[in-house]
């Protein structure tokens, strides 16, 4: 508008100058027709022009300030059009100074109100965000406190359950110990009765032995007397009987033997009466020898029986063990009474009492553990054990342990058991490798799945798999042509693989699979080309790149939405829309009133109608 005023002033100057020249050239000579024209070069006209120029400049400066405010708040500025000749005035809006000033003031007020409202909105958003952060922190604290409370409750429940379990275990242990003590007492009574019986038998056997020894001594004496009397009688008979040449020779031999100090039996050819006597004496000697042998065997058996039976030292040990068990039983009874009476005492005292009970229980079960360890040691040192373990058990390692540690000689057991455990765990790896090998060589065979409840993997199962593989390999070597059973197994395998009931449906399903596979390969190649990846790269690389692209796109979309809306979350968007709904109904009512007054349907037609009315009023 100011530029229009400057242009009008310049045009007026040009027109006046031209008109003055024309008037000077074309003035009539008569003085009657002359008119008084004020020249523009007069001081009054110059002052008017200065006023017009300064007013237009001030107005331009004010509009520039208003436009700066509008552009700052994201609104379109008001353009001042220079006045040109021949331009249609219907496309322009002309305001006077008062209306332009009022419009500028209203625009400034609106801009100030909008900035104030925006500041208030930002403050409200910040306050809302702070409140949300505080609320989240309080929720997190509440959750933490709930977790702590739950953890403490769980700890309390676990402690209570442990206390109950320990009480039950202590009661069970006390009852078991009582039963064991009763059994030990019964065993002690039985052992004492056996001991008394053994003592009585031993005394009886000692008596019988002494009697037998006396009888043997008597029999020896009687036998010596009989032998002496027999010799005497024999000598007398020999002297009294008639002597033949043979008898004389026998007598000479007897005398020679007696002179040499040798005593031998002589074959007699006497009367039959003396022969019967000799035979009876020999039979009696044989019977006596047999009785002596029987008595000596019985004596040896009795000695062995006495040696196998417990001695006085063993009885003393048994008595000491019984006394210890009685003391332990008394302590357990006292502890049980204390547990019943003092249930409200601290947990530490209970744990200490329970530890004492456990130590006593451990002392009772040490013998069982020692027996178990000795059995394990005997199994390891058995020649039927594996070669490595048998050599280790017989090698210098065991001797060194026995020499250096006299208290327990089972230090070699853990490494051997660990070696067994490693071997057992390696069975799983061996089973996996055999499964892979069988899948490659025998894909139509169903591999058995082993459960832990069934005992896990066994060596027999591995041998079965190896035997199957060997049989199949040998069969392949013998004949390359497969048997109908293998062909049937292959067909069944394909039916299971392609989920087909009949044989005729295998080929269409295979064609579908191959077509789908080709489509997938083409799609993968296209994706590789689009993403400019190497064809040799794996599918995992492709999936990772696609995931990264999707992530980048989602982040860009979120940022774009935030830039467009100028907000951080949905709640702030809703608040902003509610504020706009409250702020703009006045403008909507104002525009509807204008449309009704001007009798116009569109917003674009309001400005031309206002211009027409202004022109009409002017």
UniProtKB/TrEMBL annotation:
It comes from the Eukaryota. GO terms for cellular component: centrosome. It is found in: Cytoplasm, Cytoskeleton, Microtubule organizing center, Centrosome. One of its GO terms (biological process) is cilium assembly. Keywords: Coiled coil, Cytoplasm, Cytoskeleton, TPR repeat. PANTHER family: CENTROSOMAL PROTEIN OF 70 KDA (PTHR14594:SF1). Plays a role in the organization of both preexisting and nascent microtubules in interphase cells. During mitosis, required for the organization and orientation of the mitotic spindle. This is Centrosomal protein of 70 kDa. It comes from Vombatus ursinus.
């Amino acid at each position: 508008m100011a530029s229009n005023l400057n242009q009008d002033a310049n045009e007026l100057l040009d027109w006046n100058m031209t008109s003055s020249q024309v008037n000077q050239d074309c003035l009539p000579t008569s003085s009657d027709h002359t008119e008084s024209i004020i020249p523009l070069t007069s001081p009054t006209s110059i002052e008017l022009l200065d006023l017009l120029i300064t007013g237009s400049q001030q107005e331009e400066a004010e509009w520039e300030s208003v436009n700066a405010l509008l552009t700052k708040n994201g609104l379109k500025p008001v353009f001042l059009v220079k006045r040109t000749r021949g331009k249609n005035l219907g496309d322009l809006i002309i305001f006077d100074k008062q209306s332009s000033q009022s419009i500028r003031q209203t625009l400034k007020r609106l801009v100030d109100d909008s900035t104030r409202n925006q500041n208030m909105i930002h403050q409200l958003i910040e306050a809302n965000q702070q409140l949300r952060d505080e609320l989240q922190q309080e929720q997190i604290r509440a959750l933490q406190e709930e977790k702590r409370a739950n953890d403490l409750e769980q700890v309390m429940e676990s402690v209570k359950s442990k206390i109950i379990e320990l009480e039950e275990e202590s009661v069970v242990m006390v009852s078991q110990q009582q039963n064991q003590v009763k059994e030990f007492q019964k065993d002690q009574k039985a052992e004492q009765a056996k001991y008394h019986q053994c003592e009585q038998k031993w005394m009886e056997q000692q008596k019988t032995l002494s009697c037998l020894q006396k009888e043997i001594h008597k029999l020896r004496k009687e036998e010596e007397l009989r032998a002496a009397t027999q010799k005497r009688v024999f000598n007398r008979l020999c002297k009294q009987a008639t002597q033949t040449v043979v008898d004389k020779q026998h007598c000479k031999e007897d005398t020679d033997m007696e002179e040499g100090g040798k005593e031998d039996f002589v074959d007699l050819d006497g009367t039959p009466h003396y022969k019967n006597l000799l035979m009876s004496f020999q039979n009696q000697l044989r019977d006596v020898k047999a009785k002596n042998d029987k008595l000596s065997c019985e004596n040896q058996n009795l000695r062995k029986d006495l040696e196998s039976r417990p001695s006085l030292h063993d009885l003393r040990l048994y008595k000491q063990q019984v006394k210890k068990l009685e003391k332990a039983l008394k302590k357990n009874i006292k502890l049980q009474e204390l547990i019943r009476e003092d249930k409200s005492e601290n947990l530490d005292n209970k744990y200490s009492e329970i530890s004492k009970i456990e130590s006593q229980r451990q002392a009772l079960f040490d013998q069982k553990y020692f027996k178990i360890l000795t059995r394990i040691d005997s199994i390891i040192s058995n020649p039927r054990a594996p070669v490595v373990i048998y050599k280790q058990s017989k090698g210098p390692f065991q001797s060194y342990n026995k020499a250096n540690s006299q208290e327990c000689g089972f230090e070699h057991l853990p490494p051997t058991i660990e070696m067994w455990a490693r071997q057992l765990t390696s069975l799983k790896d061996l089973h996996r490798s055999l499964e892979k090998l069988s899948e490659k060589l025998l894909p139509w065979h169903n591999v058995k799945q082993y459960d832990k409840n069934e005992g896990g993997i066994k060596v027999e199962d591995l041998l079965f798999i190896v035997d199957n593989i060997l049989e199949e390999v040998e069969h392949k070597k013998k004949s390359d042509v497969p048997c109908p059973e293998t062909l049937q197994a292959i067909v069944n395998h394909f039916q299971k693989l392609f989920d087909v009931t009949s044989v005729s449906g295998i080929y269409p399903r295979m064609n579908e699979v191959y077509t789908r596979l080709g489509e997938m390969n083409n799609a993968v190649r296209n994706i590789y080309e689009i993403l400019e990846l190497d064809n040799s790269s794996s599918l995992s690389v492709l999936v990772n790149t696609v995931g990264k692209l999707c992530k980048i796109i989602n982040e860009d979309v979120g940022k774009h939405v935030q830039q467009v809306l100028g907000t951080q979350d949905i709640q702030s968007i809703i608040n902003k829309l509610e504020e706009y709904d409250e702020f703009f109904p006045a403008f909507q009512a104002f525009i509807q009133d204008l449309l009704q007054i001007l009798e116009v349907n569109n917003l674009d037609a309001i400005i031309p109608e206002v211009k027409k009315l202004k022109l009409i009023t002017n």
